[in-house]
Specification:
This protein has a single domain, classed as 2,3-Dihydroxybiphenyl 1,2-Dioxygenase, domain 1. The chain contains 2 helices and 8 strands; from the N terminus they run βαβββαββββ. Strands 1, 2, 3, 4, 5, 6, 7 and 8 form an 8-stranded mixed β-sheet that branches.
Length: 124
Amino acid sequence: MAAAVVHVEIRGLDEPALRDFYRIVFGWTRSDELSVDDYSVAEIGGGSLTAATGQVAEWHARECIFYIQVPDIDEALAHIEAAGGKAVMPRTAGPDDFPAKHLRVFTQFIDPAGNVLGLVEEPR
């Protein structure tokens, strides 16, 4: 079975403006249960996908990253690097109290074209 996209992050300099834009245009509503401070998460696609808006520094702004769910991040990173991609961060486990639906264990990588994408590990 093909790996599913389960989370999308849209980053910018003004998180409240981004959050309002996606609420007005697409009906994405912040879930206080899944959000933390200036990282607003909405359940979309019938709850099978989450989308987040987040505020970041100027050098990291204006990006959109989607996260692909895989059974094992270390194994997926080995395949990515063998195919010409590169890990940009190690496998990272969020704190136990982090309210994320999909981003409990995650990483990011660069594909051969230079795009930054993310991986999330299936819950075990």
